[in-house]
Write a structure and sequence with these properties.
By secondary structure, this protein is of the alpha+beta class. It has two domains: 402 residues, no CATH class; 50 residues, no CATH class. The chain is built from eight helices and 27 strands. The strands form nine sheets. A ten-stranded mixed beta sheet has the order 2-17-18-19-22-13-12-11-23-16, with helices on both faces. A hairpin with a 4-residue loop joins strand 14 and strand 15. The protein is globular, with a radius of gyration of 22 Å. The protein binds zinc ion.
Length: 500
């Protein structure tokens, strides 16, 4: 059974403030690119198109020319900043208090509970989607919110375009500690309105949105967010929903770009691009996966959920022979970037390894996005370019709470394929994988029959998964199970820490 942590007014830890690069080890080299006019984000190369035969070989991935972002990039090492805790946090007193950690039983009880602690107050009767009751603040003990966007209480239902759009356009409340607060600075949530009390969570300044529960008259506010704990932190609340106090003067409201917003769902491993009020297109992605890497456990790989603003367009990240192009920072070391590639002997690009994993968790925290264009012409290059000429774009990451389920599409949903040698099934009648091919429609319900059963999922237009694949995922996320036992076990240290 999954648990949600609710720290009743609280905090803990040391100097986190470390921006570790999501996708890499400490040995990585990071090229920093800051927005300026000299930067020429060249049009990224088109994926190789299959000529007439379509599908086959449409994607050798290695022949790309130069790539956006990597060209005229200023390089500089990424400085790991440690938050100046001295003043802000006060010398961490070693005072220990018993923190009441309430584990809220999520699965059946919580969702079914009509009183629901008010968590589902805003849920109206919308479509009968299984996860309609799941919201980002699922399991929270707090039922009121005085500030922060509707993100925290909006059901994780991608089909409710109006609600999702409002969530993406709502102003976001971030923390600005003053002085040298930057997008790589982090600060703490405290157990009590006192900087000498225990630190119970970490929040990244400038880009991470928080839910304001209550503002006290003593200069402190109680907030809630997913803890942005990276590997060097002493508040090892790995992507846990935590609540605690911060100085009210740190709170700052920012209005995001009003034309575009992104939703990343860790359950479906998709990026949903909303534009002008509508779900415009969908891309495959990979978020972080907690692992044992042969030397140590890496619970901090799990991508931190929450709502964020896209910040600096950093450029290309490299690690050994892996290159991640067009990285845009959104949460300290966590960035959204193109699916990584390696260089072939002749200098061409090879995306094979990481691209085959899109749609599943596998990064070290960053969000890897497909480079192949959807029928709407969107890929990571498009996002990179768009971000250059717009304000802060909101990026929302939905937590894959245990109990959430992916809806199975209706049998009469239309899909497409090429009866002549086509290897893939497609979402769209037009697809970059097969530009000059006329597709034949068929229905989702036929996908397991005859020749359709042999078709693969198109990596360009991102059609729905097969019913059997959805059912497999739903089983993992079913009530009473644990889709990530390793992460659950590695979080136990935090609960112990709270009791110290
Ligand atoms: Zn396609």
């Amino acid at each position: 059974m999954a648990m949600a942590l609710a720290v009743s007014a609280t905090a803990a830890g040391l100097a986190p403030g470390v921006a570790e690069e999501g996708d890499f080890s400490q040995a990585e080299i990071v090229e920093e690119v800051w927005l300026d006019d000299t930067e020429t984000a060249e049009e990224a190369p088109e994926p190789q198109e299959a000529a007439e035969g379509e599908d086959a070989g449409a994607d050798s991935g290695g022949t790309e020319a130069e790539e956006a972002g990597a060209a005229s990039v200023e390089t500089g090492s990424l400085e790991v900043e440690t938050v100046e805790l001295a003043e802000e946090a006060g010398a961490a007193s070693e005072e220990t208090r018993i923190v009441e950690v309430e584990t809220v039983e999520l699965a059946e009880e919580a969702t079914a509970d009509p009183s629901g602690q008010g968590l589902v107050d805003s849920v109206e009767t919308i479509p009968p989607i299984d996860q309609r009751l799941f919201i980002p603040s699922y399991g929270s003990t707090y039922t009121t919110q005085t500030d922060g966007s509707s993100y925290w209480t909006t059901p994780m239902d991608i089909t409710d375009e109006d609600a999702v759009w409002k969530m993406l356009m709502d102003p976001i409340v971030v923390l600005d500690t003053g002085k040298k607060s930057t997008e790589k600075t982090q600060t703490f949530l405290y157990r009590e309105p006192d900087e000498n009390s225990k630190k119970v969570g970490v929040v990244t300044c400038e880009s991470q949105g928080v839910r304001v529960i209550e503002t006290l008259e003593n200069g402190w506010s109680l907030i809630e967010c997913y803890s942005s704990s990276f590997h060097a932190t002493k508040v090892e609340a790995w992507n846990l929903l935590v609540s605690g106090y911060v100085p009210t003067k740190y709170l700052k409201t920012v209005k995001p770009d009003q034309t575009l917003g992104l939703v990343i769902d860790k359950l479906t491993q998709r990026v949903y691009v909303f534009r002008e009020g509508k779900l415009w297109t969908t891309l495959m992605c990979s978020t972080g996966l907690a692992v044992w890497n042969g030397t140590k456990y890496q619970p901090y790989n799990e991508t931190r959920s929450g709502e964020f603003l896209l910040m600096s367009r950093v450029g290309t990240l490299t690690s050994d022979n892996l290159l991640c192009s067009m990285a845009i920072r959104f949460n300290a070391g966590d960035m959204i970037h193109e699916v990584p590639h390696t260089k072939n002997g002749d200098g061409s690009r090879n995306y094979k390894r990481a691209e085959g994993k899109l749609g599943t968790k596998c990064s070290h925290g960053c969000i890897r996005v497909q480079r192949k264009k959807t029928p709407e012409g969107v890929n990571m290059t498009w996002i990179w370019d768009y971000a250059k000429n717009h304000g802060r774009i909101k990026l929302v990451i939905w937590e894959d709470w245990q109990g959430r389920q992916i809806p199975v599409p209706p049998d009469d949903m239309t899909l497409y394929y090429n009866p002549k040698k086509g290897e893939y099934y497609h979402r769209s009648e037009t697809c970059y994988m097969a530009k000059n091919v006329t597709f034949t429609p068929f229905q989702y319900g036929q996908l397991e029959e005859g020749e359709f059963a042999e078709l693969d999922h198109c990596p360009y237009c991102v059609p729905a998964l097969r019913k059997s694949e959805i059912e497999e995922i739903n089983l993992q996320y079913g009530p009473g199970r644990d889709h990530d036992e390793l992460l659950t076990s590695l979080r136990q240290g935090y609960y112990e820490y709270l009791k110290e």
